[in-house]
Design goal:
The complex is a heterodimer of chains A (512) and B (469). In chain A, 38% of the residues lie in helices and 17% in strands. Chain A has 512 residues and is α+β, with helices and mostly antiparallel strands. Chain A has 2 domains: 311 residues, Uridine Diphospho-n-acetylenolpyruvylglucosamine Reductase, domain 3, CATH 3.30.465.10; 110 residues, Alpha-Beta Plaits (2-Layer Sandwich), CATH 3.30.70. In chain A, helix 15 packs antiparallel against helix 16 and helix 17 crosses helix 19. The N terminus and C terminus of chain A are likely disordered. Chain B is α+β, with helices and mostly antiparallel strands and 469 residues long. A 7-stranded antiparallel sheet of chain B has the order 15-12-14-13-17-18-16, sandwiched between helices. Chain B has a 5-stranded antiparallel sheet with strand order 5-6-10-8-9. A 4-stranded mixed sheet of chain B has the order 1-2-4-3. The longest helix of chain B has 20 residues. Classes of the chains: A alpha+beta (512), B alpha+beta (469).
Chain lengths: 512, 469
């Protein structure tokens, strides 16, 4: 067995030597050393270090941030992953794990002095158990590939992030991804039973269990959503669900965004958990309709799509209930899909909303704040006010049932001023989300993008609990440094800029 | 079973200054009376009582902070206490110390129908909660046998008969307030439905059995009361047929609310106690929740599946009183089984396996128990792959104790070999600490120990439970 992790006193000193932000040029001498150490056990084609080879890995789905990694490693076996981890641990080299690179918060942004560890070659489905309704998959398997592989059994994998055609299950685990249907069927955490992975010092552990429950501390819940900072996933058991027998969707128009928001809260308060409940405002439908021809009501201030799934009778009953709640809350028009084709047409616009907005604006910035449903109407109104404040348009497309907003702020990256305003606009939305009792990210993760807002969302006692968890898994701080969880020092620096109600954040910390 | 170390070895008397300091704050709410200590030193496990040195009845989160700070200063163990209904020795004071009784923190703080959540103090019991929110049209589903406190249920990751539909505490706790082993107050989760910001501390504390922090307030998911409820019982020629029916039902995506298996011996015990006159064959009990037509449709589908597996016709219980009688019988099955062998206690296993292995696992378990001289009726939440084997042994007879322990080891080892777990819902406590290593391996267990140390560096929170430091 490998040597145990160093005692907690040593790492604090070591950690100072690992630059958190990982920016800057690659150190060629260091690079040669680490490449040589990796090539001892990795074949030639699994280690990339020339700039033309590493360039494609410089960013993930959040393209505003770019950084060239020192080395890209493409292991083919779990044993190789473990040896990479062990080697990096001994040489104090940071590791950034990467799946398909579709993440929207910069979670896979490389570290300039680190190894980018791509799990792209782990792309096999190892086992399907149709009786237990589970599948054992490698982390590089695409989200949609799981559903495709079990479709003939009448099963599917429920979490469906919009990027499901490309994003991988390992990345979904790292970010705790959601999707349209997570309102009813839960996030990645609720659909993963077991994760096997490599720790920072190269040990292989399993968390969770293929049985219904697992005793002891719930390490699985820590690993899912940890953004590659605790464990490098090498295998996972996911839950499969039977495909609903029947689905139908109601499309409702509202002449006021506030009313639409209140109707969302009313549906849930009536005790209905729809299969999906999505909202698009006028700016979004206007962008989508010419492109998809979904038949959206372009006069409406906002439209709501509410889906019901289950057996024929259940759906008929639930749809009737949904229609009456929506009508009672001021829906100006109601339309219910009469065929599966029509249902898909209603959804097509929603699914194409991001690319459609991309067509009408050179760039857009997608936010992910999530708020209590009760506050949806009021927050949408506030975003409207911000549009005029920053002189930018914003299309709102979002998972209304969860209160998960995805405002798409439209800007032009060739115009530095508009880019800066877009960023400020986004931050203001995130801060408003926290102020109404919500969170900065519902499903995209923190990464590098929202790290400052973490200081506002969490107090120092909570952040210290996060550090405690991180230290238990990774005392030296080598796994994906500088992401997701800000240091208190970073918060203190950020606090300088954000004095709220005359109160400085983290007043007990030294400033510089 | 791990015999606990004789407690005089580990116990140190409480420092007088510690008692003095806390008496100033708590007055009569700090008790060292024998009866009070005795009451706080035992649960429903077969262990002999191990009373704490003092009991403090707290009323606020801040008061708990005060106690934790005093415990840190004087290195005194602290054990949170709800109503004492745990099953695995969770709250025995193996190293002495103080028991922090949260039963006076019993207020429902907020009900938020639009968010489908309710926030309660830790001492609220599950029945009290449902009583208080009944008029809102919502309910909280999780129903372990005892009327446990929400704090205790959270700490042990409790479950119940309808987990197949509504999940366990892990799925239903969305946030909480916790006092850590360093006396800090941490609020986890938020009002938002989902969040991918930061590590999931909420789920870390659920099931941590008081070893990482004292849980003082909890935000839970609530559900609309179903419009219609119906229950049915159905007999099968073999346990395997019953289990296969369950698997097929779940595979079809029929949202059954409850699905419980009683083997022939359990049915016999229940008949003897509750005069139900059920056929003495393996039995499934179903409950359906939903709209009136939805419920009828679900039931029809399940009945068809059951018939394909050789079942007799469904016996319906649509009137609430019939339903109550049926489920009371299920909830009392444990006591009914005890009467099969007067003078015995039950050594109850709690294994849980992937549902695809369940039929095989139960069949092999029955083969073992049939060859044993001890009766061991089986009952289970089969929809979750979780079943209990109530091994009935007379604690005064060493040969019976040895046989009970042999069967227990056999059943647990088989479940773990089938990728299952030694405990589906009762928790680890002291009883299952050693199985944890078999199940998770050394490295994962070391990781748990490091997390324990990170949250409770002085090892004052419920020491000697779950993980060894």
């Amino acid at each position: 067995m490998n040597a145990p992790l160093p005692s907690p006193q040593v790492p604090r000193l070591l950690a100072d030597r690992i630059p958190l932000d990982g920016t800057g040029a690659v150190d060629a001498v260091r690079q040669r050393e680490v490449v040589a150490a990796l090539k001892i056990f990795l074949p030639e084609h699994c280690v990339l270090w020339r700039e033309e080879d590493t360039r494609p890995y410089e960013c993930d789905g959040l393209t505003m941030y770019r950084q060239l990694p020192m080395i890209v490693a493409l292991p083919e076996t779990e044993e190789q992953v473990a040896r990479i981890a062990r080697t990096c641990f001994e040489m104090l080299v940071p590791i950034v794990p990467r799946g398909a690179g579709t993440g929207l918060s910069g979670g896979a942004l490389p570290h300039g002095q680190g190894v980018l560890l791509s799990l792209a070659k782990f792309n096999r489905i190892l086992k399907i158990d149709p009786l237990a309704c589970t599948a054992v998959v490698q982390p590089g398997v695409r989200n949609l590939a799981i559903s495709d592989a079990v479709a003939h059994l009448g099963l599917y994998y429920a979490p469906d992030p919009s990027s499901q055609i490309a994003c991988t299950i390992g990345g979904n685990i790292a970010e705790n991804s959601g999707g349209v249907h997570c309102l009813k069927y839960g996030l990645t955490l609720h659909n993963v039973l077991r994760v096997r992975g490599v720790t920072v010092d190269g040990q292989i552990i399993e968390v969770g269990s293929e049985a219904f429950d697992s005793p002891g501390l719930d390490l699985l819940a820590l690993v899912v959503g940890s953004e590659g900072m605790l464990l490098i996933t090498t295998e996972a058991t996911v839950k499969l669900l039977p495909k609903p027998l029947f689905q139908q969707v109601v499309m409702a128009s509202f002449d006021d965004v506030g009313k639409g928001g209140d109707a969302v809260a009313a549906v849930i308060a009536a005790g209905i958990i729809p299969g999906g409940m999505e909202m698009m405002d006028k700016a979004a439908t206007a962008a989508v309709e010419p492109f998809v021809k979904a038949g959206y009501d372009l006069d409406a201030a906002t439209i709501l799509l509410v889906e019901s799934d289950g057996t024929l009778e259940e759906v008929a009953e639930e749809i009737a209930q949904i229609e009456s709640v929506l009508a009672a809350h001021g829906a100006t028009r109601l339309e219910t899909s009469q065929s599966d084709l029509e249902r898909q047409r209603f959804w097509a616009g929603r699914k194409a909303a991001f690319p459609a907005v991309g067509r009408v604006s050179p760039d857009y910035y997608c936010m992910d704040g999530t708020i209590p449903r009760k506050r949806v109407g009021e927050v949408l109104k506030a975003i409207g006010v911000m549009e005029s404040k920053y002189g930018l348009r914003c299309a709102n497309v979002f998972h209304a049932g969860d209160g998960n907003l995805h405002p798409l702020i439209m800007f032009d990256s060739n115009d530095a001023d508009s880019a800066m305003r877009a960023e400020q606009f986004g931050f203001e939305i995130l801060e408003l989300s926290i102020a109404v009792g919500g969170t900065v990210t519902g499903e995209h993760g923190v990464g590098v993008e929202k790290i400052h807002q973490m200081c506002q969302q969490f107090d120092s006692a909570t952040l210290e609990s996060f550090f405690a968890v991180k230290r238990a898994f990774d005392p030296v701080g080598l796994l994906n440094p500088g992401k997701a969880i800000p240091t208190l020092t970073r918060c203190a620096e950020y606090g300088k800029m954000h004095v709220k109600g005359g109160q400085l954040a983290f007043p007990d910390l030294p400033r510089f | 079973m791990n015999a606990p170390a004789p407690h005089h070895v580990l116990r140190k008397p409480l420092p007088a200054e510690f008692i003095d300091a806390l008496t100033t704050t708590f007055g009569a709410r700090l008790s060292t009376a024998d009866a009070v200590r005795e009451h706080h030193g035992r649960d429903e496990s077969p262990y002999p009582p191990m009373p704490p040195d003092a009991v403090i009845f707290v009323r606020t989160t801040e008061e708990i902070s005060v106690v934790v700070n005093a415990c840190m200063r004087y290195r005194v163990p602290l054990i949170p206490f709800g109503v004492g209904s745990s099953l695995e020795g969770h709250l025995l004071a193996v190293q002495g110390g103080v028991s922090v009784d949260l039963s006076q923190m019993n207020k429902v703080l907020a009900v938020n129908p639009e968010d489908l959540t309710v926030t309660v103090q830790a001492g609220v019991t599950r029945k009290q909660l449902n009583q208080e929110i009944r008029d809102t049209g919502f309910f909280f589903p999780i129903d372990p046998g005892a009327d446990a406190t929400i704090g205790g249920m959270t700490a042990t990751g409790a479950s119940g008969t309808n987990a197949v539909r509504y999940g366990t505490m892990r799925e239903n706790v969305v946030g909480m307030t916790v006092v850590t082993g360093e006396g800090k107050v941490v609020r986890t989760g938020g009002r938002a439905k989902k969040s991918s910001a930061g590590y999931d501390l909420t789920r870390l504390f659920v099931g941590s059995e008081g070893t990482l922090g004292v849980i003082t307030e909890i935000t839970l998911r609530i559900y609309p009361q179903p419009e219609a409820v119906s229950a049915a019982s159905c007999s099968f020629p073999t346990v395997e047929d019953a289990v296969k029916t369950t698997i097929a039902t779940i595979q079809m995506g029929i949202p059954i609310a409850r699905c419980e298996l009683l083997d022939a011996m359990t049915v016999k015990a229940v008949n003897a106690r509750d005069k139900l006159g059920l056929p003495e064959m393996p039995l499934l009990l179903f409950e359906f929740h939903g709209s009136p037509t939805g419920v009828a449709e679900q039931a029809k589908l399940v009945e068809e599946i059951a018939k394909e597996h050789g079942a007799a016709a469904f016996e319906w219980a649509t009137r609430p009183e019939d339903r109550t009688r049926l489920w009371e019988a299920r909830h009392n099955a444990y006591f009914a089984c005890l009467q099969l062998k007067p003078g015995s206690r039950s050594f109850t296993t709690d294994v849980c396996v992937p549902i695809s292995r369940l039929a095989e696992c139960i069949a092999e378990t029955i083969r073992d128990t049939e060859q044993s001289f001890l009766p061991a009726p089986i009952l289970g939440h089969v929809g979750d792959g979780n079943f209990h084997c109530a091994i009935l042994a007379d604690p005064s007879k060493p040969e019976e104790l040895a046989e009970a322990e042999r069967l227990n080891q056999l059943i647990v080892a088989r479940a773990i070999a089938m990728n299952g777990t030694c405990t589906g819902e009762h928790g680890v406590g002291m009883h299952k600490m050693d199985f944890l290593r078999d199940e998770h391996g050394d490295d994962a267990l070391d990781l748990m120990a490091r997390i324990k140390r990170a949250f409770d560096p002085l090892d004052i929170l419920n020491p000697g439970k779950v993980v060894r430091i």
